[in-house]
Amino acid sequence: MAEDNSKHVTYITGFIYDASDRFLLIRKNKGPSTVIGKLTGIGGKVEEQDFFHTDAMDREIREELGEDFKFDWTTLGMVEYEGYFINVIFYAKVENIYNLDGKTVPSKNDIGEKFEIHHANDIICHEECGLGVKSIVALLVWENPETDRIEVTRYKKDG
User: Fold this and answer.
1) Are 136 and 125 within 8 A, CB to CB?
2) Beta-bridge mates of residue 87
3) Contact criterion met (CB below 8 Å) for 144 and 132
4) How many angstroms separate the CA atoms of 49 and 155, rounded?
5) pLDDT digits 0-9 by tens, 121-145
6) Regarding beta strands 149-154 and 123-125, do their DSSP bridges make them parallel or antiparallel, or are they unpaired?
7) Distance CA 44, CA 67 (A)
8) Which residues sit opposite 10 in a β-bridge?
9) CB-count exposure of residue 134 (10 Å: 0-12, 13-18, 19+)
10) Residues 50-87: pLDDT tens digits?
11) Are 64 and 26 in contact (CB under 8 A)?
12) What kind and span of H or E run contains 62?
């Protein structure tokens, strides 16, 4: 019997950081319940018109930030979740996160999701993800109210 690919969805997530290890994150108010209210990278679903995954990243950046920024995306890897959706993870380093191509990052996108800039020193990465600028990507980023710091954890599947 042929595999049903109708439920297979590919997402992309991009993390932008600068020479001072500051990350541009977005506080999600839309998407899967695992990301609502959480900080994560910018991204979304790969659409039919996206020839390459980097095309999808460029489109998502344009949709989210409202500008046609071009970043030099590096693929970190792919994470598959329970065999039905894949997240392709990218990162891009810029000179100054506060000044992207001479433009200031907006405070929020058109659906009210806020952009936040956080320094890597304010991010705690749990043991399973291995802290490092590149390893922060592909991870669910969330705030721990007990420590007032941002913590990073891999998405986990049940079992």
Assistant:
1) yes
2) 11, 79
3) no
4) 27
5) 777 655 444 434 333 433 455 555 5
6) parallel
7) 16
8) 86
9) middle
10) 999 999 999 999 999 988 888 999 887 777 766 667 77
11) yes
12) helix 53-65
Phi, psi angles (nearest 5°) of residue 130: 65, 100
pTM of the model: 0.76
- Beta carbons within 10 angstroms of residue 144's beta carbon: 10
Q: Give CA–CA dist 38/18, Å, rounded.
A: 21
Instruction: Give me 135's structure tokens.
Output: 């390893």
The token duo for 29 is 């108010």
- Name the token pair of 93: 């380093």
The one-letter amino acid code at 124 reads I
- Domains of the chain and CATH, by start: 10-95+105-154 (3.90.79.10)
Is-contact 111 131, C-beta < 8 A? no
